[in-house]
Amino acid sequence: MSVPDGVTIRRCLPADAEALTDLHLDCWDDAYTGLMPQEVLDARRTSVPERVERWREILSRSRNTQVAEAAGGDPPGHHGLALGQRGIDRRTV
């Protein structure tokens, strides 16, 4: 697999939980705005601290969750997430 210059793919760590929570919420907004009631999307943002903690729990157990990070770029930081595990309750992340 070829990775673009300036992009690193690495194992996620519990310290990534806050950034991944933001990324996950943003992706849902991008994917589902206009396809589901806006109240559903808005409600997901009312429980950010709980979502961050849930990601910390997932990442502390996971050995197969990867993140793509871009150095520099616009914006810098986390740009992708791949979960390779079983047993995540997707209703809580």
> Strand share of the residues?
15-25%
CATH architecture: 3-Layer(aba) Sandwich
Number of DSSP strand runs: 3
Q: Report the span from N to C terminus.
A: 28 Å
Write down the overall mean pLDDT.
81
The low-pLDDT segments are none
Per CATH, the class reads Alpha Beta
What's the assembly state of these chains? single chain
- The helical percent reads 25-40%
Structural class: alpha+beta
> What's the number of helices?
3
The name CATH uses for the topology is Aminopeptidase
Main beta sheet: strand number and arrangement?
3 strands, antiparallel
Strand order of the largest sheet: 1-2-3
Radius of gyration, taken over Cα atoms and rounded to an integer in Å: 14 Å
The H-level CATH homologous superfamily, spelled out, is Gcn5-related N-acetyltransferase (GNAT)
> What is the general shape?
globular
Number of domains: 1
Order of helices and strands: EHHHEE
Task: Report on the architecture of this protein.
The structure is a single chain. By secondary structure, this protein is α+β, with helices and mostly antiparallel strands. It has one domain: Gcn5-related N-acetyltransferase (GNAT) (Aminopeptidase). Helix content is 40%, strand content 17%. The protein is built from three helices and three strands. The protein has a three-stranded antiparallel sheet with strand order 1-2-3. Strand 2 and strand 3 form a beta hairpin. Helix 1 (17-32) packs across helix 3 (48-61). The radius of gyration is 14 Å and the shape is globular. The protein starts with 6 loop residues before the first strand and ends in an 11-residue tail after the last strand. 11% of the residues are buried. The model has no long low-confidence stretch (mean pLDDT 81).
